Structure formats: C-alpha cells, structure tokens
Amino acid sequence: MIEVAGLRVVLPPATVALHGIDLVVRQGEFVVVLGRSGAGKTTFLRSLNRLVEPTAGTVRVAGRAITGAGATELRAVRRQIGMVFQQFNLVRRASVLENVLAGRLGYVPSVASVLGRFPQTDLELARTCLAQVGLVHLADRRADTLSGGEQQRVAIARALAQRPAVILADEPTASLDPALTSSIMDILKTINREHGLTLVVSQHQLETALAYATRIVGFRQGRVAFDGPPAAVTPAVVQAIYGDGDGR
Amino acid sequence: MTRAALFVAVIVLAWLVWDTGADPVRLARGVPWILDFIRRMMPPDLRVLPAALLGALKTVEIALLGTAVAAVMALPLGFLSARNVAPGPVFYPARAVLNFFRSVDTLVYALVFVAAVGLGPFPGVLAVVAYTTTSLAKLYSEAVEGIDPGPVDAITATGATRLQILRFGVMPQILPLFLSYVLYRLESNIRAATVLGFVGAGGIGFYLQTYLRMIDYPAASTVLLVTVAMVMVVDAISSRLRDRLV
Ligand SMILES: Nc1ncnc2c1ncn2[C@@H]1O[C@H](COP(=O)(O)OP(=O)(O)O)[C@@H](O)[C@H]1O
Ligand SMILES: [Mg+2]
Asked: Which strand ranges, in their side-by-side order, compose the sheet holding A56-61?
C-alpha cells in the first residue's frame, strides 16, 4: 500500500533528517513509528504525502508514485492519504462540519467549493464520518470551542471524509491529556480493523505503541533501527531505538 | 550604565526644553487668553449647525471612500510584502516602497493632491487612499506572516488546489484581522480627515478654518462640537463591529 525506496530528506540548511529509508507497508497494517524526539518521525510521515519534499528516493501510495508527480497527480494521490496532526490543525473559526467537509476538497470542483457549494452526498458523508468518531451532535459548533480530544476526533473525521486508502497520524495523542490517549487510539484501531484502512502512526509512548500496533518501526537518527511485530520488541530493541534513555 | 543613561536623558531633555522655548511661565501667562478664547466661543452659534453637519458628512464620506479603496488596493501589496509568501526579490522592494510612502502623512499628501487636481473632497479622498494603502498593506503583511501553518498543511494534505488552500486554510485566519485593521484605519482616517479642509481638501476642517479666520468663535465652537460628536459616533460603531470579529 505504501512503498518507500531510498527516501532521503535533507532539510535546509543541511540537516539530514532521513538517510535513505526503504520500507513497504502492506494493506491493512497498523504501523507504529517509534523514536526519540528528532529521530525523523515527522519528516518521514510528511514526506509520504509530500508536505516535505524528498531530496531523493521514491514513494508510492496505493500503486501511484507521489514523488515526481505533477500538480494534478500530486493532488489525486494526496486525497488517498488522510493525515492527522499532533496539533489537530482544524480551521478554528469554521464549524465542525465545515472542517470535516474540507476532507472532500480533493474531489469537488475548485470554484464551486470556494463558493461554499458542496454536493449533497458530500454533506451526508461528512455527517457519517462525524458519527464514526461520535461527534455528530457537535456538527454546528465552532471548532475552537471543542476540547482537545474532541478536536482530534474531528480531525480524524476529516481524514475519513477523504475516503482514503491510508491514514498517517503524527503523534496524534501527544498534545492531549494522557487519559485521552486510548480514546483516540481506539478510534484509529477501529478504523483499521473494520474498514481495513492502512495506518501509519507515530508515537512517543512505548506501551501505547505495543498495545495497538501490528508492526513497529523504530527510527533512530534518520534510519530504521528496528522493524518487526510488537512481540519482537525486547529490551535490546528498545535500547537500539532509544539508546541509553529509559524508553520514553 | 542605567545612571549614565539617566544622565544623558536629563541632558537631552534639558536641551529640548531650551531649544523649543518651552516655558511654564509663558504657559501660565497664556491661561487667561485661553479662558477668554473659550468664553468668546460661548454660546455656540447654532445657525451654522446645518453647514457643520454637511461638512461632517463630507469628512465621513472622504474617510469611508478613501479607506474602502485603500483596503482593496492594499491586498496585493500586503501579500507581496509578507516574508512567508513573497520571494526575496519581491519582498525587499515591496517593503521599501511601503516604508517610503508610509513616512508621509495624509495631510502632506493632501497638499500634493490639491495642487494636482484642485480644491474639494476629491484630493482629500486621494490623500486618504495614498496613506492608508501603504499603512494597511503593512498591517496585512504582518497578519499574513503571523499565520498558523497547521491548518494550511491540513488543507493541503486533503489534495486541495491552491485556490482551495487559500480559501479554506488561509482566508479564515486572516480575514477577521484584515477587517479589524480596516475599521481601525477608518477610525484614524476620520480624525485625519477633519484637518484635510485646512489645506483645501474638503470636509468639516474647511468650516473650522473659515470661522477661525473670520474670528467667528461661536460658529467655530459649533463646528468643533460637531467634529467631536462625529468622531465619537464613528468610533463607537467601528469598535462594536471590531468586537464582533474576534
Ligand atoms: N523545519 C526544519 N528545518 C530544519 N531542520 C528540521 C526542521 N524540522 C525538523 N528538523 C530536524 O530534522 C530532524 C528530524 O526531525 P523530526 O522529523 O521532526 O523528528 P521527530 O518527529 O522524530 O521528532 C531533527 O534533527 C530536527 O532537528
Ligand atoms: Mg515529530
């Protein structure tokens, strides 16, 4: 579902954030990316949909190359990839429903959407996605009046509205009260299990990662230091990913 | 260090007092004249009220039209002088142009435009446009620079076009700020426009200057009272609108 080959990212001025990553994620996997702060997790996820421009290497998603794609093809591939951010990144002044509708932007005619016109089917789909995260009763509220946990659920609904093949989530629980971690991770798990969506989620909490992942990919200094099932994560593996830290 | 700075400040202030001829005794001696001036303004001559109101209306019109035109003209300039939008070769010249034109006050522009197009409210409008365009462009560019990249990333990630990113990721963040800056400029332009009449650029200032020249202080005081009322009314409406935007 995601094929990454030789992915290298140099951030200006000269930080080598990723040193040639090779990774294949199969349909239906729940991959959790682990690693210390600065290991390259965010850069990796953002180069999968080219929010960060790769310096070298190729990325294919759902059978289509996103690296090297022209503007139109890039947008067509992007709409296959939902993204959830650590800071939710909702449009604060817009309503919850409008935020979810934004997930349809890749499908609707540009000018009509700019005038605020969306097909009736998209409105219904947006409501369905809101119901999936249990927030349909908040559809008309302004996004910034919601709690952090609710905002992240709206962000997940926005990603679902894209009807994506893949969802990328960059530390989706890091800005939330730890008590909310499982509520967000549970929703992601449900999406993964019931809809067969492929998930790539970065996490800084080892226990959470082990509890939800079907596969763990450990990053260290821009390289893959471990790749395997949660059961294979031994103390030696934790040491290899985190170095001399305590694993957190 | 702080004592040295204090010492320098005292020296500078003392020199400023000397060089400007600032003299409390002279001010004290002038107080009876001020009181006499106020006494001669009383009671206001209400016969000139219609003329004063008409003048006030002209002033509001000059400020409104000038601000509205400037609000639109400042849009491209504002984006071109935002560091996170414009490339370097565009950004630096745009900023320089803004800073140059902003350093000239509305009243000075009015002098130029009166000379260019003749007397009346029209040069006043042009003067307001000239100053406000650049000052709004500066404020717009700061709003654009202060944008949160998060929602822009999120909209981009959905596969949106540039137009959609602008509409759904950028505009909601900057539009309320832009509108509140426009209202704020409108308030200060009303004040600036009250004196435009002094140089022949229309509005209520023309009446104030005329009555003062004719030594008709009761009439001048009516004009002053109307000016104060006009400024207060516009401020009240504008600040109400601004509160709604946040
Ligand atoms: N905008 C940026 N410009 C330059 N370097 C960056 C930028 N963002 C991140 N980096 C660097 O890239 C490396 C990887 O960062 P990141 O992908 O954010 O790691 P993680 O998400 O695992 O914390 C780090 O060395 C970080 O300092
Ligand atoms: Mg990160």
From this structure: A15-25, A2-11, A56-61, A64-65
